[in-house]
């Protein structure tokens, strides 16, 4: 995908994950989803993009490639579209993410347990062990269709929580150390030199201590899988 499309789809996914982490989803639809500091920012991955491309057939239908067999997950969106202007394709990626979010028809419990199979598209997008994803699309003029496929680097399990809810053990994006309890090679903050100030009385100068700047609410990591 070109960079502007990657940015659009990355932002759409991470905005949703931030809403989950900070409990900003409509509780009447999504139920009592708990907040979490153990949600990680998704990164774009070319391998997953290649797999997504392979899941869209020439007629914009879904191919027989079994993504689940690779321990990955897939979301697929198709809409009627006679003509496509490439400058508008990013809008359709955002629409696809919105449609996948709407797959939730039954509220979640307070442990974020995935119990309704129909909500798989939503579960795939917010699963905390998913750290990478990639997407592709195909426009089929003869069929007057547009299909979008996204492949995710991990697969949630039906009947299990989609993420670790906030708890007393302070796991997740509280500090770099607690982020690394969830995923190695991860961080929750970066340091910034605030400059020099004059010390009262002695008129000498000293550097301010390094300040930790919070990245959250999503941790960041260079890892591609959760152990």
Per CATH, the class of the largest domain reads Alpha Beta
Class inferred from helices and paired strands? alpha+beta
CATH architecture of the largest domain: 3-Layer(aba) Sandwich
Distance between the termini: 29 Å
Which strand order spans the largest sheet, edge to edge or round the barrel? 1-3-4-2
Counted beta strands: 10
Q: Which fold name corresponds to the CATH topology of the largest domain?
A: Pathogenesis-related Protein p14a
According to CATH, the homologous superfamily of the largest domain is CAP
Q: Whole-number average pLDDT? A: 85
Biggest sheet record: 4 strands, mixed
Bin the strand percentage: 15-25%
Q: Looking at the structure, what is the overall shape?
A: globular
Domains, number: 2
Q: How many distinct helices?
A: 6
Helices and strands, in order, run as: HHEHEHHEEHEEEEEE
Low-confidence stretches are 191-209
Q: Which percent range fits the helix content?
A: 25-40%
Over the alpha carbons, how many angstroms does the gyration radius reach?
21 Å
Protein name: SCP-like protein
Domain SCP: 4-153
């Amino acid at each position: 995908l070109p960079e502007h499309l990657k940015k659009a789809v990355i932002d759409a996914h991470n905005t949703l994950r931030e809403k989950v982490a900070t409990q900003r989803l409509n509780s009447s639809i999504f139920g009592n989803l708990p907040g979490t500091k153990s949600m990680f920012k998704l990164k774009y991955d070319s391998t997953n993009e290649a797999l997504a491309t392979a899941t869209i057939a020439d007629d914009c239908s879904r191919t027989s490639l079994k993504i689940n067999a690779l321990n990955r997950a897939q979301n697929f969106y198709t809409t009627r579209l006679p003509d496509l202007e490439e400058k508008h394709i990013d809008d359709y990626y955002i629409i696809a993410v919105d449609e996948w979010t709407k797959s939730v028809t039954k509220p979640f419990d307070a442990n974020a347990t995935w119990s309704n199979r129909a909500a798989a598209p939503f579960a795939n997008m917010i699963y905390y062990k998913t750290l990478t994803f990639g997407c592709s699309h195909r426009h089929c003029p003869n069929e007057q269709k547009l299909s979008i496929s996204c492949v995710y680097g991990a697969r949630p399990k039906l009947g299990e929580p989609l993420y670790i809810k906030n708890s007393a053990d302070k796991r997740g994006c509280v500090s770099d150390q607690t982020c690394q309890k969830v995923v190695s090679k991860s961080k929750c903050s970066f340091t910034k030199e605030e400059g020099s100030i004059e010390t009262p009385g002695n008129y000498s100068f000293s550097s301010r201590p390094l300040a930790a700047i919070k990245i959250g609410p999503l941790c960041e990591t260079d890892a591609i899988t959760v152990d």
